[in-house]
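tool_call predict_complex ligand=adenosine-5'-diphosphate
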Amino acid sequence: MNAPRVSLERVGKDYAGHDGVPVPVLKGIDMTASDHEFVAIVGASGCGKSTLLRLVAGLDDVTSGTIRVAGRPVAGPGPDRGMVFQQSTLFPWLTVWQNLRFSRGLAVNAEATSLEVSQYLARSEALLNMMGLARVRESYPNQLSGGMQQRVNIARALVANPEVLLMDEPFGALDAQTRETMHDLVLHLFAAEKTTALFVTHDVEEAIYLADRVVVLAPNPGRVDSTHVVPWGRARAQELKLESAFVTLKGEILARIRATSAVHADHELLASMAVGARAQSVREGGTNP
Amino acid sequence: MGAATVGTRKVQGGGSLQQAVPAQGRSRLRLGRIRAPISKTLYGGLAVAGFLLPLAIWEAISAWHLVGRLFLPSPADVWGSLAHWYAGGLLRDTGISVYRVVAGFVLACLIGVPLGLFIGAYKWCEALLQPINDFVRYMPASAFIPLVILWVGIGEGSKIAIIFIGVVFQIVVMVADAVRKLPDRYLEAAYTMGAREGEVMKLVVWRGTWPQIVDILRINMGWAWTYLVVAEMVAADSGLGFAILQAQRFLDTAKIFVGIIIIGLIGLAFDLLFRALHKQMFPWYRP
Ligand SMILES: Nc1ncnc2c1ncn2[C@@H]1O[C@H](COP(=O)(O)OP(=O)(O)O)[C@@H](O)[C@H]1O
Ligand SMILES: [Mg+2]
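tool_result ok
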């Protein structure tokens, strides 16, 4: 198996604009992820990160180009690609354990041998324990905190042993402390599971800390701007974030995002606001601090 | 009922809020504050008072002969009429009315719920059926009565048909709406786990909208009673609606009162039944 686990070749996506004219959202995306590789995708808001992931998941169709997962072209969603969204997608009417076992009951898994079934059960148990969910096994999703819900979402996406795990800002709605815990949990999990992952985030620090490689997307239309290899192995600890090499890499990636996005215009706006505020405080005789 | 549960839940959660209120004007402040919780006892007491107050006013009006008995019988008259009617077949009249409502309602559910599910799930079903459903929905069910009598006759069928016509189109549109409100992300999660269309329909769309559907059925049960009375007043020789109309012919105002109160009580009982069922079936549900 020399072919990469996931490959995107000249992938483009148009959305219908207001006047019916197609607006290119992604254009000429070339990207690969090899076996067991953790690839983070960062970029300004609206540059097409979610769209890219939805194309790989098969939830939307490409306008041009080809996406292959394990050599097979993507045509629609399937259990070979697990997906975790920013908002929890756990079924509220099922308990944690029932959610984990949801895919087991589907027709795609109906022909499973008894060995596969027992492996599936063992795997569900193992994931439950690894993610620290044994205690909430019989709880309903609404009874769990946001962090716990995302743990179950990740576990559920991994149960079917997908070729690649797709995550779209899975920790975007969590508070900073919970997020750090989740990062270390994910590092631990992926060391054990050896799953290939595409991880979308707007948090550059999170991207570097988790990934083997960080891809920067540039907006309008979305395209690959640059790729940054993360030089550390997967045994990482929070202190890494303070090391100068980490900070330097973070600076480089942030600089690329800034250079490619519309932040220039925002800088001008901020500058003009500062001038305006100064003028106003002068007019009000300095009563405004 | 719903307000009662919200009220009690807030009493437990709102402790800090109550402490923040100065001790002396506490109860006055609490009642005046929007959404402020009240104790379970006070809630129950006020609910009973809400029934007793109009009863007392009613009793006072008839005791002082402010209104003629023909127009407003006294509570004692109504009680006496109830006893009289009970001896003269109240249960039979009630039974036949309940039968008609339940038959028409169940029929409307069997047709309306699946239609609503499909209209909500498939755009082509929506295009084909929703506009015509909306059109018919705005035709008053009571206006169909002459037509129904012409087609079905004046047997049991016509009463059941009126109730069916009265609620089926509402059930369709409300169920379709509930399905459309189910977030896309649940469907997408199921697809990415390998679910096929039929499985998504059964395991996600159906399961995910069950609580809303039970609520929709509860609301439509209430409307079904309205149509029952209309149907029985126009074309029936039995049932509560028919008895009310008969009582009017004989100027038996007390019996009219009894009929209306009985219908109200049965409606309330069905409503409570549906709510209890809902709570029992969907412990996970958070609106
Ligand atoms: N269904 C859609 N129809 C039309 N435009 C869309 C749709 N989904 C996304 N877009 C547009 O595509 C662009 C990229 O969106 P998205 O992939 O969500 O960006 P990101 O996840 O990087 O913030 C945005 O400008 C957005 O408005
Ligand atoms: Mg996004």
